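Internal tracking record. Fields below are filled automatically when a chain is submitted to the structure queue. Please do not edit lines marked as system-generated. If the sequence contains nonstandard residues, flag them in the REMARKS field before resubmitting.
Queue: standard
Priority: normal
Entity type: single polypeptide chain
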Amino acid sequence: MRHNPAQLLSATLAAWLVAAASVHAQDIANKDIYVLANQLADEVELIREVMGRRYDESPRLPVSQATEFEVFFQAQTLFRKSNQLAYEIAGVPRQAATPAPDRDITPADTHALVASALEQIRLVKKELGIDEVVPLQVRDAGISPTGNFLIIIDINRQLNLLVSTTIRSADVFEEVSFAVLYTAGILAAVGGVSELPEPVFEGHMRPFQNYFRLLECIDLVSQIASKAGVSVLGISTRRNLPDDIEPGHVYDIANILVADLAYLAKALDAKQVPTNLGPTPRHVFPSHVHQRAGVLLRQLQQLEAAL
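SYSTEM-GENERATED OUTPUT FOLLOWS
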Protein backbone atom coordinates (compact mmCIF):
# COMPACT_ATOMS: atom_id res chain seq x y z
CA MET A 1 0.00 0.00 0.00
CA ARG A 2 1.42 3.36 -1.02
CA HIS A 3 1.35 6.30 1.39
CA ASN A 4 0.61 9.88 0.46
CA PRO A 5 3.70 11.99 1.39
CA ALA A 6 1.44 14.81 2.60
CA GLN A 7 -0.43 12.40 4.89
CA LEU A 8 2.86 11.04 6.22
CA LEU A 9 4.09 14.58 6.93
CA SER A 10 0.80 15.47 8.62
CA ALA A 11 0.89 12.33 10.77
CA THR A 12 4.52 12.94 11.70
CA LEU A 13 3.79 16.54 12.64
CA ALA A 14 0.78 15.48 14.74
CA ALA A 15 2.86 12.87 16.56
CA TRP A 16 5.58 15.45 17.18
CA LEU A 17 3.06 17.94 18.61
CA VAL A 18 1.60 15.31 20.95
CA ALA A 19 5.09 14.32 22.10
CA ALA A 20 6.09 17.96 22.56
CA ALA A 21 2.96 18.67 24.57
CA SER A 22 3.66 15.64 26.74
CA VAL A 23 7.23 16.76 27.40
CA HIS A 24 6.04 20.29 28.11
CA ALA A 25 3.42 18.99 30.58
CA GLN A 26 6.06 16.95 32.36
CA ASP A 27 8.24 20.06 32.64
CA ILE A 28 5.54 22.11 34.41
CA ALA A 29 6.09 22.40 38.15
CA ASN A 30 4.27 24.10 41.01
CA LYS A 31 6.46 27.17 40.61
CA ASP A 32 5.04 27.63 37.09
CA ILE A 33 1.50 27.64 38.48
CA TYR A 34 2.57 30.21 41.08
CA VAL A 35 4.10 32.51 38.45
CA LEU A 36 1.01 32.32 36.22
CA ALA A 37 -1.38 32.83 39.17
CA ASN A 38 0.56 35.94 40.25
CA GLN A 39 0.29 37.32 36.73
CA LEU A 40 -3.45 36.63 36.81
CA ALA A 41 -3.75 38.37 40.20
CA ASP A 42 -2.04 41.47 38.77
CA GLU A 43 -4.39 41.44 35.77
CA VAL A 44 -7.39 41.22 38.11
CA GLU A 45 -6.00 44.16 40.08
CA LEU A 46 -5.97 46.31 36.92
CA ILE A 47 -9.63 45.43 36.36
CA ARG A 48 -10.51 46.15 39.98
CA GLU A 49 -9.03 49.65 39.73
CA VAL A 50 -10.99 50.46 36.58
CA MET A 51 -14.22 49.08 38.07
CA GLY A 52 -13.65 51.04 41.29
CA ARG A 53 -14.34 48.02 43.50
CA ARG A 54 -12.88 47.61 46.97
CA TYR A 55 -9.80 45.54 47.61
CA ASP A 56 -10.34 42.28 49.46
CA GLU A 57 -8.46 42.50 52.74
CA SER A 58 -9.64 39.22 54.24
CA PRO A 59 -6.89 37.50 56.24
CA ARG A 60 -5.33 34.55 54.49
CA LEU A 61 -6.65 31.15 55.42
CA PRO A 62 -4.14 29.46 57.78
CA VAL A 63 -3.77 26.30 55.70
CA SER A 64 -0.99 23.77 55.35
CA GLN A 65 -0.18 20.61 53.40
CA ALA A 66 -2.53 21.27 50.50
CA THR A 67 -2.61 18.48 47.94
CA GLU A 68 -2.50 18.81 44.16
CA PHE A 69 -6.17 17.77 44.09
CA GLU A 70 -7.20 20.61 46.43
CA VAL A 71 -5.27 23.16 44.37
CA PHE A 72 -6.91 21.86 41.18
CA PHE A 73 -10.32 22.14 42.87
CA GLN A 74 -9.66 25.81 43.72
CA ALA A 75 -8.45 26.39 40.16
CA GLN A 76 -11.78 25.08 38.86
CA THR A 77 -13.52 27.70 41.01
CA LEU A 78 -11.08 30.31 39.69
CA PHE A 79 -12.03 29.49 36.11
CA ARG A 80 -15.76 29.61 36.88
CA LYS A 81 -15.48 33.03 38.53
CA SER A 82 -13.26 34.38 35.74
CA ASN A 83 -15.74 33.13 33.16
CA GLN A 84 -18.61 34.70 35.10
CA LEU A 85 -16.85 38.08 35.05
CA ALA A 86 -16.10 37.69 31.33
CA TYR A 87 -19.76 36.83 30.73
CA GLU A 88 -20.96 39.90 32.61
CA ILE A 89 -18.48 42.38 31.15
CA ALA A 90 -17.60 41.05 27.70
CA GLY A 91 -20.56 38.81 26.86
CA VAL A 92 -18.37 35.71 26.70
CA PRO A 93 -20.41 32.47 26.62
CA ARG A 94 -20.62 30.58 29.90
CA GLN A 95 -18.23 27.66 30.04
CA ALA A 96 -17.73 24.74 32.39
CA ALA A 97 -14.39 24.24 34.10
CA THR A 98 -12.23 21.34 32.96
CA PRO A 99 -13.21 18.27 35.03
CA ALA A 100 -10.65 16.44 37.13
CA PRO A 101 -8.92 13.69 35.13
CA ASP A 102 -9.43 10.08 36.15
CA ARG A 103 -5.88 9.79 37.51
CA ASP A 104 -3.60 11.61 39.90
CA ILE A 105 -3.63 15.39 39.43
CA THR A 106 -0.39 16.89 38.14
CA PRO A 107 0.81 20.53 38.22
CA ALA A 108 0.24 20.61 34.43
CA ASP A 109 -3.50 20.01 34.97
CA THR A 110 -3.81 22.97 37.32
CA HIS A 111 -1.54 25.15 35.17
CA ALA A 112 -3.86 24.59 32.19
CA LEU A 113 -6.89 25.66 34.25
CA VAL A 114 -5.15 28.82 35.51
CA ALA A 115 -4.10 29.62 31.93
CA SER A 116 -7.74 29.26 30.81
CA ALA A 117 -8.85 31.59 33.62
CA LEU A 118 -6.22 34.11 32.52
CA GLU A 119 -7.66 34.05 28.99
CA GLN A 120 -11.07 34.95 30.43
CA ILE A 121 -9.61 37.84 32.43
CA ARG A 122 -7.80 39.18 29.37
CA LEU A 123 -11.09 39.26 27.47
CA VAL A 124 -12.44 41.47 30.27
CA LYS A 125 -9.37 43.73 30.03
CA LYS A 126 -9.87 44.08 26.29
CA GLU A 127 -13.53 44.99 26.71
CA LEU A 128 -12.63 47.62 29.32
CA GLY A 129 -9.88 49.08 27.15
CA ILE A 130 -7.06 48.19 29.55
CA ASP A 131 -3.86 48.12 27.51
CA GLU A 132 -1.33 47.68 30.31
CA VAL A 133 0.61 44.46 29.94
CA VAL A 134 1.56 42.46 33.04
CA PRO A 135 4.84 40.65 32.41
CA LEU A 136 5.31 37.04 33.40
CA GLN A 137 7.91 36.97 36.18
CA VAL A 138 10.62 34.34 36.28
CA ARG A 139 10.84 32.22 39.41
CA ASP A 140 13.69 29.81 40.04
CA ALA A 141 12.79 28.75 43.57
CA GLY A 142 10.28 25.97 44.02
CA ILE A 143 6.99 26.32 45.87
CA SER A 144 4.63 23.89 47.54
CA PRO A 145 1.03 23.22 46.47
CA THR A 146 -0.02 25.16 49.59
CA GLY A 147 1.50 28.35 48.17
CA ASN A 148 -0.53 27.90 45.00
CA PHE A 149 -3.67 27.12 46.98
CA LEU A 150 -3.33 30.37 48.91
CA ILE A 151 -2.82 32.68 45.96
CA ILE A 152 -5.65 31.08 44.00
CA ILE A 153 -8.09 31.43 46.88
CA ASP A 154 -6.96 35.07 47.28
CA ILE A 155 -7.85 35.72 43.63
CA ASN A 156 -11.19 33.96 44.05
CA ARG A 157 -12.03 36.23 46.98
CA GLN A 158 -11.18 39.32 44.95
CA LEU A 159 -13.27 38.09 42.03
CA ASN A 160 -16.19 37.75 44.45
CA LEU A 161 -16.07 41.55 44.75
CA LEU A 162 -15.96 42.11 40.98
CA VAL A 163 -18.76 39.90 39.71
CA SER A 164 -22.33 41.14 39.94
CA THR A 165 -23.56 37.76 41.15
CA THR A 166 -22.12 37.73 44.67
CA ILE A 167 -21.84 34.64 46.86
CA ARG A 168 -25.10 34.05 48.73
CA SER A 169 -26.21 31.68 51.45
CA ALA A 170 -27.84 29.62 48.69
CA ASP A 171 -24.39 28.99 47.16
CA VAL A 172 -23.03 27.89 50.53
CA PHE A 173 -26.07 25.65 51.02
CA GLU A 174 -25.37 23.96 47.69
CA GLU A 175 -21.71 23.33 48.57
CA VAL A 176 -22.63 21.87 51.95
CA SER A 177 -25.18 19.65 50.18
CA PHE A 178 -22.40 18.29 47.95
CA ALA A 179 -20.36 17.56 51.09
CA VAL A 180 -23.34 15.68 52.58
CA LEU A 181 -23.65 13.54 49.43
CA TYR A 182 -19.94 12.66 49.40
CA THR A 183 -20.07 11.77 53.09
CA ALA A 184 -23.09 9.51 52.58
CA GLY A 185 -21.15 7.59 49.94
CA ILE A 186 -18.09 7.28 52.17
CA LEU A 187 -20.22 6.05 55.07
CA ALA A 188 -21.74 3.38 52.84
CA ALA A 189 -18.26 2.33 51.64
CA VAL A 190 -16.96 1.77 55.19
CA GLY A 191 -20.06 -0.06 56.35
CA GLY A 192 -21.64 2.86 58.16
CA VAL A 193 -25.19 4.20 57.98
CA SER A 194 -25.70 6.17 54.75
CA GLU A 195 -29.15 7.49 55.73
CA LEU A 196 -29.05 11.14 56.70
CA PRO A 197 -29.43 12.24 60.32
CA GLU A 198 -32.64 14.06 61.12
CA PRO A 199 -32.19 17.79 60.34
CA VAL A 200 -32.68 20.25 63.17
CA PHE A 201 -33.68 23.81 62.27
CA GLU A 202 -32.34 26.65 64.39
CA GLY A 203 -33.44 30.19 63.64
CA HIS A 204 -31.64 33.52 63.97
CA MET A 205 -28.36 32.18 62.59
CA ARG A 206 -25.72 34.42 61.02
CA PRO A 207 -22.89 33.67 58.55
CA PHE A 208 -20.29 33.67 61.33
CA GLN A 209 -22.17 30.79 63.02
CA ASN A 210 -22.16 28.87 59.70
CA TYR A 211 -18.42 29.54 59.47
CA PHE A 212 -17.65 28.10 62.90
CA ARG A 213 -19.86 25.05 62.38
CA LEU A 214 -18.07 24.26 59.13
CA LEU A 215 -14.72 24.71 60.87
CA GLU A 216 -15.86 21.93 63.22
CA CYS A 217 -16.48 19.81 60.14
CA ILE A 218 -12.99 20.66 58.82
CA ASP A 219 -11.46 19.43 62.08
CA LEU A 220 -13.40 16.16 61.85
CA VAL A 221 -12.46 15.58 58.19
CA SER A 222 -8.80 16.00 59.13
CA GLN A 223 -9.15 13.36 61.87
CA ILE A 224 -11.07 11.03 59.55
CA ALA A 225 -8.50 11.37 56.78
CA SER A 226 -5.69 10.62 59.21
CA LYS A 227 -7.47 7.44 60.34
CA ALA A 228 -8.00 6.43 56.72
CA GLY A 229 -4.35 7.05 55.86
CA VAL A 230 -5.20 9.89 53.48
CA SER A 231 -3.48 13.27 53.41
CA VAL A 232 -5.73 16.33 53.17
CA LEU A 233 -5.23 20.02 53.62
CA GLY A 234 -4.72 21.19 57.19
CA ILE A 235 -6.30 24.38 58.48
CA SER A 236 -5.78 26.09 61.82
CA THR A 237 -9.35 26.79 62.91
CA ARG A 238 -8.36 29.33 65.54
CA ARG A 239 -6.25 31.77 63.50
CA ASN A 240 -6.87 34.44 60.86
CA LEU A 241 -10.61 34.70 61.36
CA PRO A 242 -12.21 37.46 59.23
CA ASP A 243 -13.47 40.46 61.20
CA ASP A 244 -16.79 40.54 59.37
CA ILE A 245 -17.68 37.06 58.15
CA GLU A 246 -19.79 37.09 54.99
CA PRO A 247 -21.26 34.24 52.91
CA GLY A 248 -18.16 34.40 50.67
CA HIS A 249 -15.94 33.45 53.62
CA VAL A 250 -18.29 30.61 54.56
CA TYR A 251 -18.21 29.43 50.95
CA ASP A 252 -14.40 29.18 51.12
CA ILE A 253 -14.66 26.68 53.98
CA ALA A 254 -17.52 24.75 52.37
CA ASN A 255 -15.53 24.53 49.12
CA ILE A 256 -12.52 23.11 50.97
CA LEU A 257 -14.77 20.54 52.64
CA VAL A 258 -16.17 19.40 49.30
CA ALA A 259 -12.67 19.07 47.84
CA ASP A 260 -11.39 17.08 50.83
CA LEU A 261 -14.41 14.77 50.90
CA ALA A 262 -14.22 14.23 47.13
CA TYR A 263 -10.55 13.31 47.53
CA LEU A 264 -11.31 11.02 50.46
CA ALA A 265 -14.13 9.34 48.51
CA LYS A 266 -11.78 8.71 45.61
CA ALA A 267 -9.08 7.29 47.90
CA LEU A 268 -11.59 4.93 49.55
CA ASP A 269 -13.28 4.04 46.24
CA ALA A 270 -16.59 5.27 47.65
CA LYS A 271 -19.46 5.43 45.19
CA GLN A 272 -22.39 7.80 45.13
CA VAL A 273 -25.43 6.36 46.90
CA PRO A 274 -29.11 7.36 46.55
CA THR A 275 -29.59 10.13 49.10
CA ASN A 276 -32.73 12.14 49.72
CA LEU A 277 -31.65 15.64 50.70
CA GLY A 278 -35.19 16.92 50.70
CA PRO A 279 -36.35 20.07 48.88
CA THR A 280 -34.14 23.14 48.74
CA PRO A 281 -35.89 26.10 50.40
CA ARG A 282 -37.14 28.72 47.96
CA HIS A 283 -35.28 31.37 49.96
CA VAL A 284 -32.08 30.17 51.61
CA PHE A 285 -30.84 31.97 54.71
CA PRO A 286 -27.93 31.28 57.09
CA SER A 287 -30.29 29.27 59.32
CA HIS A 288 -30.87 26.81 56.46
CA VAL A 289 -27.10 26.55 55.90
CA HIS A 290 -26.65 25.91 59.61
CA GLN A 291 -29.24 23.14 59.52
CA ARG A 292 -27.59 21.37 56.57
CA ALA A 293 -24.13 21.84 58.10
CA GLY A 294 -25.50 20.22 61.25
CA VAL A 295 -26.47 17.16 59.20
CA LEU A 296 -22.95 17.07 57.77
CA LEU A 297 -21.39 17.39 61.22
CA ARG A 298 -23.35 14.41 62.55
CA GLN A 299 -22.50 12.38 59.44
CA LEU A 300 -18.82 13.08 60.00
CA GLN A 301 -19.13 12.08 63.67
CA GLN A 302 -20.66 8.77 62.54
CA LEU A 303 -17.88 8.31 59.99
CA GLU A 304 -15.14 9.04 62.51
CA ALA A 305 -16.66 6.46 64.88
CA ALA A 306 -16.96 3.87 62.08
CA LEU A 307 -13.27 3.97 61.14
